[in-house]
Design brief:
Rossmann fold; rod-shaped; alpha/beta; 352 residues
């Protein structure tokens, strides 16, 4: 059991959210700063996904940033950088985080990096810790120390923060909105966690716990460390891998459910538009039918009028014919001769 972290002139603290640095390793940060080390803090997410009991969400990112800056000054952190990635969805930005952290560590060249535990109780914490471990394998030259926030850590190093505990408490109290308006509750809880570690060193005080890695461990060593040597016998799959698979499945289901909800909304909108278009079409068909009916009614009297006129004209013609060619007259006889001659050329009977 080590009772202190290795000496370092440049320390980089990686926090998934504003407040993780103060809760998990605020005392250790204060100790390094007090001893003259250059301490830098990189916060990955914007902290926007916090669920507040009073339902207040306006400007939450700006408020949490202000709280972060205040805590940073109290802890003695000289440099602060924020990536402002979506809170609660860091698994969807793994490549971006990996690149940003790699570039940052290459530029700063730290001696020690503090990162959240691989088994901490939040997916954002786990992904940041996993990337830190990957970078230890690819960009060596610094020591990695995992700290605990939401889940107990199997540690190999304890840091005595008794003399700087008041600084840690003051930093935690900066996070009013971040800690649900109950920073005192969180200080009491983490103070109790730090006090509990005193049992391992057999003297009173407050201690922050770390799992320190000077060289990259193998996957088997990580699983053995996390599970205290327990290994399943039926298929050889480690517990951490099974937990990760379940977490990935849950996040995938949540994403698909959101996509399904968006699709349902689009279908509802299309159905509403279709109903409106159908009603409009029915209205137009009604108007067309009414116009056709009106047209038919107006056409019938005209047809009747033309037939009546034709009958009257035929009767008038017959009267004129009988007046000009009266029956029994020589003119009527001549007309009969003409009619017979015409019939010969038209092949019609004389009666026609």
């Amino acid at each position: 059991m080590n009772t202190d972290l290795p000496p370092a002139k440049r320390v980089v603290v990686i926090a998934p959210h504003p407040d993780d640095e103060s809760l998990g390793c605020g005392g250790t940060i204060a100790r390094f700063a007090k001893n003259g080390a250059e301490v830098r803090l990189l916060v990955v997410s914007d902290g926007a996904a916090i669920e507040e009991p009073d339902g207040r969400h306006e400007d939450i990112v700006a408020v949490r940033t202000q709280e972060l800056e205040a805590a940073t000054k109290i802890l003695g952190i000289q440099h602060l950088r924020t990536l402002q990635l979506p809170d609660g969805r860091l698994t969807h930005h793994e490549a971006q985080i990996h690149t940003a952290l790699s570039d940052y560590l290459t530029t700063v060249q730290p001696d020690l990096v503090l990162a959240p535990s691989l088994i901490d109780g939040h997916q954002d914490h786990v992904i940041v810790g996993r990337i830190a471990l990957q970078l230890l394998r690819t960009t060596p030259g610094w020591t990695l120390a995992f700290y605990e926030v939401l889940a107990p850590l199997r540690f190999n190093t304890l840091v005595d923060i008794t003399d700087v505990a008041s600084i840690k408490e003051t930093a935690i109290r900066c996070y009013q909105r971040s800690l649900f308006q109950q920073p005192q509750l969180f200080w009491d809880a983490f103070r109790a966690l730090n006090v509990a570690k005193s049992a391992f060193v057999h003297h009173s005080g407050l201690f922050e716990a770390f799992w320190v890695l000077h060289a990259p461990p193998s996957d088997h060593e990580i699983i053995a460390w996390a599970t205290y040597g327990f290994q399943p016998s039926h298929n050889g799959q480690g517990p951490l891998q099974r937990v990760k698979d379940v977490d990935d499945l849950v996040f995938a289901v949540q994403e698909k459910m959101q996509q399904l909800a968006n699709t349902d909304q689009q279908i509802h909108t299309l159905r509403s538009e279709l109903t409106a278009a159908t009603q409009k079409l029915q209205h137009q068909e009604t108007l067309i039918a009414a116009l056709q009916l009106a047209s038919n009614k107006s056409a019938t009297p005209a047809q009747d009028s033309r037939a009546e006129c034709l009958t009257k004209e035929t009767s008038l013609f017959r009267q004129c014919l009988e007046y000009v060619f009266p029956p029994g007259s020589s003119r009527r006889s001549a007309l009969s001769v003409v009619k017979r001659r015409l019939t010969q050329y038209t092949s019609k009977s004389p009666n026609e």
